[in-house]
């Protein structure tokens, strides 16, 4: 990710075809050591390609991916609860046992901050 970020920064700066040395220069300016294998792979994958075209292609691909998150499941839960919610509430009521009172520290003869 850091290699791609440096590559994109160079592209924004006007370098339309950054080399591995250019990317290493950006990374070393902020104290990051470049991974040669990953950097060579990135450079070979992006060689001769326009970054803006790749970004627009990726954006159209991402637009087709459903990303509704938890919004879709929210409507199913209330309808399911409406059908069987009353019966479930009636069943749960007898299951509750009276809560036992906790013993106080005074009975032990010492307190927490004594």
Helix content: 55-70%
The chain-level mean pLDDT equals 77
Largest sheet data: none
Measured by DSSP, the beta-strand proportion falls in: under 5%
Structural class: mainly alpha
Number of strands: 0
Record the SSE blueprint.
Layout: H1 2-12, H2 20-29, H3 36-46, H4 51-63, H5 76-95
Describe this structure in words.
The structure is a single chain. It contains 5 helices and no strands. The model has no long low-confidence stretch (mean pLDDT 77). It is elongated. Helices cover 57% and strands 0% of the residues. It has 114 residues and is an all-alpha fold.
Short description:
The chain has 114 residues and is mostly helical. The protein contains five helices and no strands. The chain has helices at residues 2-12, 20-29, 36-46, 51-63, 76-95.
Give structural attributes.
mainly alpha; 5 helices; 114 residues
